[in-house]
Specification:
By secondary structure, the chain is of the alpha+beta class. It is 55% helix and 21% strand. It has one domain.
């Protein structure tokens, strides 16, 4: 069995990344993981930071829609089986 890939949540881009792509930072609220990509993007010009933010927002929206679709399919399936048993 292979080694498990450890994922951590990036508080900046709000997604999970492998820990080797992350840095643990000390913040006002304690230690938090942040991905290296978001750290590097924050050091760029405003236009590049804005583009990075737009790309990340699009990825987050896509993931949110997928999760909503899965939840909706489960709800419909559960409702169908409930009606079928009556």
């Amino acid at each position: 069995m292979g080694a498990r890939l450890m994922l951590s949540f990036c508080y900046s881009c709000r997604t999970y990344h492998p820990q080797h792509e992350m840095t643990l930072l000390e913040t006002k609220v304690g230690r938090r993981w942040r991905c290296i990509a978001s750290i590097n993007a924050s050091k760029q010009s405003r236009a590049i930071r804005d583009e990075f933010g737009k790309q990340q927002s699009a990825r987050n929206k896509e993931e949110s829609l997928k999760q909503a679709q899965i939840a909706n399919e489960k709800r419909i399936t559960k409702s169908f089986y409930h009606v079928a048993q009556i």
